[in-house]
Amino acid sequence: MAYVRKTVDRYDIETNCGYGWEAESSYDTYKEAKRDIAGYREYTAHYGGCARIVHRRVRKEAVNG
User: Is residue 10 within 8 Å of 27, Cβ to Cβ?
Assistant: First the structure.
């Protein structure tokens, strides 16, 4: 019997402008998150903040509802 994953990968873009880390958007692939993070970094740089990509594993039951 083949192994079935119980989790799904999720990549969140988080920003911090001085009030703590906040998740701005979520993506299914790292490539999509990497493509969009440049805009967030440019936006937060005006306010002295920063942006990062965080990899998370989410249970499939929570994703499917």
Answer: yes
How many helices and strands in the chain, by DSSP H and E? 2, 3
pLDDT band at 65 (very low <50, low <70, confident <90, very high): low
Residue in this structure with the two tokens 């083949």, named with its chain if needed: 2
The dihedral through the CA atoms of 61, 24, 37, 49 has a sign that is negative
CB-based contact 13:23 (threshold 8 Å): yes
0.85 cut: is pTM over it? no
Q: What is the largest CA-CA distance in the chain?
A: 53
- Measured distance CA(48)–CA(65) in Å, rounded: 37
